[in-house]
Amino acid sequence: MIEIEHLSFRYPGSGAGFALPALRIERSAKVAIIGPSGAGKTTLLKLIAGILTPDAGTVRVDGVTVSALNDSARRNFRISRIGFVFQELELLDYLSVYDNIVHPYRINRVLKLDRQVRGRARELAEHTGLGDKLTALPRELSQGERQRTAVCRALLSEPALVLADEATGNLDPPSKLRIIELLIRATERNRATLLAVTHDHELLPLFDRIIDIRQPRNPPTE
Question: Which residues form the ABC transporter domain (predicted)?
């Protein structure tokens, strides 16, 4: 599912960067990424999703060399094939829970918002305990409810790959477990791959594999 070779990236105007010689993650795997702040965990997810492009090396996802695509092709690939739960959640304050969940379908031509998708959005909301919150605005939700809204949005397209960046941050233990179990059930149902950045080591037994990025990694200067 994911193949990375000789990857390096540096943020423009900054000494911060990331390098990874090789990584292979098989289809349908449930993988946790752990490590200290600044080690490059979020950067890795964004490189895999094509949000960032590497300075060198290759990133392949589901047989597609994402790192070689142009901006438009990378965006379309990400929209149609990858579900991303961002650390900042990126919910729109002026949209209801339902409208936040379906929002990617309203702004991207590669996705079609039809009756089946609308039904799936409501079903996801019901399964995550948001069935009575569909008309609520994000400011009217608890942190856990906001997290679940972001998860529903990421899962709506039934993506082959789900990337979650600290999806359980700032939640109490029962809510953390509920979010991870939701992601795991959804990816297992769709035979999708789950790659989750987490600091919650008590959740690690739920994953098939753990990747420990122990130290910040800086790409070569040349």
Answer: 2-221
Q: What is the dihedral of CA 93, 90, 179, 59, to 10 degrees?
A: 160
Predicted TM-score of the model (pTM): 0.90
The neighbour count for residue 38, using CB atoms within 10 Å, is 14
- Region 53-82: mean pLDDT is 94
Residue 193 near residue 162 (C-beta atoms within 8 A):
yes
182, pLDDT greater than 80? yes
Between CA 135 and CA 77 the distance in angstroms is 30
- In contact, 30 and 208? CB cutoff 8 Å: yes
Structural domains of the chain ordered from first start: 2-212 (3.40.50.300)
SS3 112: coil
d(CA 44, CA 49): 9
State how far the Cα of 98 lies from the Cα of 116, in Å rounded to an integer.
Answer: 14
